[in-house]
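Box 3.1. Reading complex inputs
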Amino acid sequence: MILEYVLVLSAFLFSIGIFGLVTSRNLVRALMCLELLLNAVNLNFVTFSDFFDSRQLKGNIFSIFVIAIAAAEAAIGPAIVSSIYRNRKSTRINQSNLLNK
Amino acid sequence: MDLPGSIHDFLIVFMGSGLILGSLGVVLFTSPIFCAFSLGLVLIYISLFYILANSHFVAFAQLLIYVGAINILVIDSVMFMNDLEYDKIFHRWTVGDGITSLVCTSLFVSLTIIILIASWYGINWTTKLNQILEQDLINTSQRIGIHLSTNFFLSVELISIILLVALIGATAVARQ
């Protein structure tokens, strides 16, 4: 019963993250919802690894890799935000020619 | 953690409600600094979840990397944004927001139905025995260390190269 509760919780976080990512009006909120998505997936992995894989912990190891990839993406994201802000003086992401000089 | 079952369940339910409120705060607040702090709260609650799930290494990696580095980066990039007048706490919803909320709600309902229907304990999880001596005396973090240094060694090297390239690229993009 606890397993289903935690899985439903991670599904909730995932759908909230998708909703926030699609409806966000600026880039920083989209980055935050991307972190929410990755964390929901991590929670799923760690829960399965705890309940079913206490010997080899493959879910834990994969979630460590997901955290590392999220760190790389969270470094690149604000760099892109800063270059967009330098060009455009705003962070709205409705336009598709944002990185144009 | 080896807590009694009822305290374990109560803590999981309590932190689940905190997660739900925090994630709704990330999505629905207008002011971006409130969003960033709600995200920090969500990340801390998830780290506590990992401690309850006996995964201490992932919990501390989450605290260090997510809360300590990524949340600070998010707050820094919040400071890039313009100073608008935030007179409302929540956004006004448009038609696109409504359609997206319908789609995401249907996604969540379908995922919940799948989770509740599936018989998780009936699946045959076969794991082959690996050749590590004294397998029952090693705790979780040591097991993760052994696997990372023997079975997943190539993945660790690739991840380190990816991180290096990503960080150097980020500083190259962010420079003048």
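In summary: The longest helix of chain A spans residues 58-88.
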